[in-house]
Amino acid sequence: MTQILQARNVNLRDLIDQFGLQLVRDREFFTEWHEDLPELIEQEEQFLDKVQQGFLNLMQYPPYLEKAVQISVLSPLLFLANFFLPPFRIRAEQSTEIISEDEGVLIRGQLDLIVLKDRFWVLVIESKEFSYSPEAGLAQLLSYMLANPDDEKPCFGLLTNGLDFRFIKLLKNPARYAVSDRRDLLDEGNALYSVLQIMKRLGQL
Question: What is the pTM of this model?
Answer without folding.
Answer: 0.91
